[in-house]
Design goal:
The chain contains 2 helices and 14 strands. By secondary structure, it is mainly β. The protein starts with a helix and ends with a strand.
């Protein structure tokens, strides 16, 4: 309530300087479309101190993140982040590049170490660990990745989803997708055929 009152008072006092008033209170500068700032921060839950921090540069924005343990590296915990560069939402969504950025956690998961960065053809808005691999919603495609030494290996892909995937959940071999159009898709991954099958949608 105090925060709202302060904003209201300052805005009414000088409407011509309302942008500056918001910057003084919130502390975030206004910028042009397509300019973004994102970071990954590890925080000590007991003290709320920042333990490690990685900032993305060059208007690169993070849209998704997932901790994942791959079967090939059972003793390592990886952090995969879906990012995009120079994203503009209006009049329609545009971007210059999209990536999956792979980090590994070190020193009892208190440090983040960069591993590699892989280009993808659309923004990754959803990630989910799946049986020692990684499921990614790359735009409206569902992709199953495994990890290699220098890049992620595409193992399986479903291109039959009609809108952008925003959430992935799993139960055994069953996969539930939520999309940006508030639709749902139920899929099954048949490991012996290495194929995704849609068996229900809304």
């Amino acid at each position: 309530e105090k925060f709202r009152t302060t904003i209201s008072t300052q805005t009414n006092t000088d409407n011509s300087n309302s942008t500056a008033s918001y910057e003084d209170i919130i502390g975030v500068p206004y910028t042009d479309d397509g300019n973004w700032a994102s970071c990954i921060r590890i925080v000590d839950a007991s003290t709320l101190d920042t333990v490690d921090l990685i900032e993305f540069e060059g208007s690169e924005a993070a849209f998704s993140a997932q901790l994942c343990t791959f079967s090939a590296y059972p003793n390592e915990k990886f952090l995969i982040v879906g990012t995009a560069v120079n994203v503009k939402m209006l009049p329609h969504l545009t971007f210059t590049n999209a990536y999956l950025v792979v980090f590994v956690l070190k020193e009892n998961e208190t440090k983040i170490e960069f591993v590699f960065k892989q280009s993808v053809n659309d923004i990754v808005r959803a990630l989910c660990e799946y049986q020692g691999r990684l499921l990614a919603g790359v735009g409206n495609s569902l992709v199953l990745y495994d990890i290699g030494k220098n890049h992620l290996l595409k193992k399986c892909e479903c291109k039959k989803i009609t809108s952008t995937i925003t959430k992935i959940q799993t139960n055994g071999q069953r996969i539930l997708l939520s999309t940006i159009n508030e639709s749902f898709y139920f899929l099954r991954h048949k490991t012996n055929e290495n194929q995704f099958y849609i068996f229900a949608d809304d």
